[in-house]
């Protein structure tokens, strides 16, 4: 009987100490899962921002051949960020778009404006050829952008993998 009382007292004492520890462990695990999900969503939002910026540049160049200064600055910043949150392949892809777009914009700035008295038919031909080269370059870039980003924009995949 004495042994049963000792065991009961030991069990009561242990339960007093273990219950808070077990509860703390459950709370800590819950906080860990919340932190992991927050990190996953934060990473998703940053990657989505890079994607949207690149899509804006490609779309504007395809539609009008022009990009606003604000969109261009945003794209350059997002491209820089991409090297830290996406694969090297995507960074190189975005860099390729950046280089071609810069070349195109520089070339277009070197040609006089249509309203200028210096604008000739040769200038019109140069603009047309430059737009054609850019269109050819960008033809598959939108689909390629979607393909390259798809693994990174899937919310429920492993956020740590850089594919």
Helix count? 5
Number of strands: 0
Mean pLDDT: 83
Structural class call reads: mainly alpha
Major sheet description: none
What is the terminal separation in angstroms?
65 Å
Share of residues in helices: over 70%
Q: Give the overall form.
A: rod-shaped
The SSE string, one letter per element, is HHHHH
- Proportion of beta-strand residues: under 5%
**Gyration radius, rounded:** 29 Å
Enumerate the spans where pLDDT stays under 50 for 5 or more consecutive residues: none
Keywords:
mainly alpha
Structure description:
The chain has 163 residues and is mainly α. The protein has a domain at 46-152. Helix content is 79%, strand content 0%. It is built from 5 helices and no strands. Helix 1 runs antiparallel to helix 2 (69-85) and helix 1 (2-63) runs antiparallel to helix 5 (141-149). 14% of the residues are buried.
